[in-house]
């Protein structure tokens, strides 16, 4: 069974400039040779070292991670495949791309069900090219709240969904006091959420 999506066409899930750069990149064109979910996972394992949308340095093209994320968009992942990504033991980047897939493509009403079991995930990795380390739990909370600095248009949830996710995160905070800083973040975000 396919993941319940937002219903948006795949070329509108990402910023237009990023999408155009992905589709015209030589690396993405090379990905046509990958036909299976497992081949894409192997490529992530071997090639991805950050999950920002753009390459760093002088080659300002789309990142390997986002080319592979787009490849997954074209494959329309199943629920079983998504569970395989989110629980993958070999690389946090495989897991992070799974969460990005959900954040961009899944029906916003289903996000909490996917993300909630991982809010306290302690696996450490560096999502950005700057080498700064965080936990998977912190990373996915940032994805849910639209706080990841390098993501932009299309990444924020609509007001109703944002309030719902923020409320659920705040309730989780009250239940798990180790997430106390998140409560303060939700308090700061509520007045500024998009209308």
UniProtKB/TrEMBL annotation:
The keyword Cell membrane is annotated on this UniProt entry: no
Ranges annotated as spanning the membrane: 162-185
Gene Ontology biological process terms in this record: mRNA splicing, via spliceosome
Main location class: nucleus
Entry annotated with the keyword Secreted: no
Keywords for the protein's UniProt record, in alphabetical order: Membrane, mRNA processing, mRNA splicing, Nucleus, Spliceosome, Transmembrane, Transmembrane helix
GO cellular component: spliceosomal complex
Superkingdom field: Eukaryota
Task of the protein: Required for pre-mRNA splicing.
Protein name: Pre-mRNA-splicing factor 38
């Amino acid at each position: 069974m396919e993941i319940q999506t937002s219903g948006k066409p795949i070329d509108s899930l990402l910023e237009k400039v990023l999408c155009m750069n992905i589709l015209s990149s030589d690396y993405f064109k090379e990905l046509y040779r990958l036909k299976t979910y497992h081949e894409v996972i192997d490529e992530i394992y071997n090639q991805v070292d950050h999950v920002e949308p753009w390459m760093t340095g002088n080659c300002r093209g789309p990142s390997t991670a986002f080319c592979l994320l787009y490849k997954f968009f074209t494959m329309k992942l199943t629920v079983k495949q998504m569970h395989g990504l989110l629980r993958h033991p070999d690389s946090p980047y495989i897991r992070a791309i799974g969460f990005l897939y959900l954040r961009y493509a899944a029906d916003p009403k289903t996000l909490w069900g996917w993300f909630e079991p991982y809010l306290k995930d302690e696996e450490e990795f560096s999502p950005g090219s700057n080498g700064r380390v965080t936990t998977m739990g912190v990373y996915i909370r940032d994805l849910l709240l639209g706080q990841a600095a390098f993501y932009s248009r299309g990444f924020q949830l609509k007001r109703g969904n944002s309030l719902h996710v923020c409320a659920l995160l705040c309730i989780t905070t009250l239940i798990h006091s180790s997430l106390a800083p998140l409560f303060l973040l939700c308090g700061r975000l509520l007045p500024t959420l998009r209308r």
